[in-house]
Amino acid sequence: MKVKIHNKKNTWQAGIQLLSLLVFFLSGATQSFAIMTWQPAPAKHKHATHNHRMMTKDYQLTEHSDATVFLWKPDLKSRKLELESNQLSLKSTGMDSYHALVAKRRTDDITEVAIRYPYMRGKPTGISPRVLVGAVKASFEIIPAPLPREHRRYHAAQDAVFLLRYEGKPVSNTSVTLSTSNGTTLHARSDRVGAFRFSLPDDFTATKPGRANNKPAEFVLYSEYSANGRHYRTSLSAPYYVDPAHWQSTELGAVVLIFGFVSGVAITRRGRKRSSAVQGGRS
């Protein structure tokens, strides 16, 4: 089932809150809540360096009250990070690969986690991203199966597979909701091995020629689970990009249009030259 959110004036954070309410009603919860999740944030500082390996990435954490944040490196070493308000600037660790941003908070009966896998530049590690993804970073978590390879991305209109795990073991027959910053909401259920699949929505309203001219959108996966007297909430966020077929076809269309125009001009000029030659011969 696919639900479109048509109010384009809603902010991305409002969309997350709407998703929270939707999950609340579907789950039969007794009180409302908002989802804790990672989102890109505007850079706080302008960096003069052009060294790509030293660039920072800026993120913000929604509903971050009482959350503790950790950064996991590809070698599974982790360290605690401090938020400034709800934001942080993630600097290079010197290791080239995926890292994991993990935010956790816990109350008397609820444990909540938000995870994101940013790719950081540095020296090659020789460590497969499967090591980081496979590590148990939270009691209940959504993991990519697999993460996109280096230089690749999540794209609209393409399938993406994920797993639900509790204490490192698959969680079957459990609802998962996908929400995008472009206003799409989708639902799925995990299978017997904890896997679920989404065809990422092709919900970009406009495309331009060239990959760099099309900004990414965000998707958030969210799920809940209860075990051993506790309730768990988990989210996984990531960017996804315009289906390359769109901007490539737009680019091709522009090339065809230009070629047609140039060909037309050339044919017109040839016609004029021939006409002038005929008239000159008659005179």
The CATH class of the largest domain is identified as Mainly Beta
Number of strands: 19
What's the structural domain tally?
2
Look up the CATH topology of the largest domain.
Immunoglobulin-like
How large is the share of residues in beta strands?
Answer: 35-45%
- What distance lies between the first and last C-alpha atoms, to the nearest angstrom? 77 Å
Largest sheet: 9 strands, mixed
Overall shape: it is globular
Helical/strand content category: alpha+beta
What is the tally of helical segments? 3
User: If classified by CATH, what would the architecture of the largest domain be?
Assistant: Sandwich
Give helix % range: 10-25%
Integer-rounded radius of gyration: 25 Å
Give the H and E element order.
EHEEEEEEEEEEHEEEEEEEEH
Can you tell me the CATH superfamily of the largest domain?
Answer: Immunoglobulins
Q: Which strand order do you get reading across the main beta sheet?
A: 1-16-15-18-19-9-8-4-5
- Stretches where pLDDT is under 50 for at least 5 consecutive residues are 1-9, 20-32, 46-53, 250-262
Average pLDDT for all residues = 81
Structural description of this entry:
Strand 8 (100-106) and strand 9 form a beta hairpin. By secondary structure, this protein is of the alpha+beta class. The chain contains three helices and 19 strands. It has helices at residues 12-27, 129-134, 244-282; strands spanning 2-4, 38-40, 57-61, 68-72, 78-81, 87-90, 94-98, 100-106, 110-116, 119-120, 122-124, 140-144, 159-166, 169-170, 175-180, 184-189, 195-199, 217-227, 230-240. It folds into two domains: 2-242, Immunoglobulins (Immunoglobulin-like, Sandwich), CATH 2.60.40.10; 246-283. It has a nine-stranded mixed sheet, with helices on one face. Strands 12, 13, 14 and 17 form a four-stranded antiparallel sheet that branches. The termini are far apart. The longest helix is centred in the last third of the chain and has 39 residues, at 244-282.
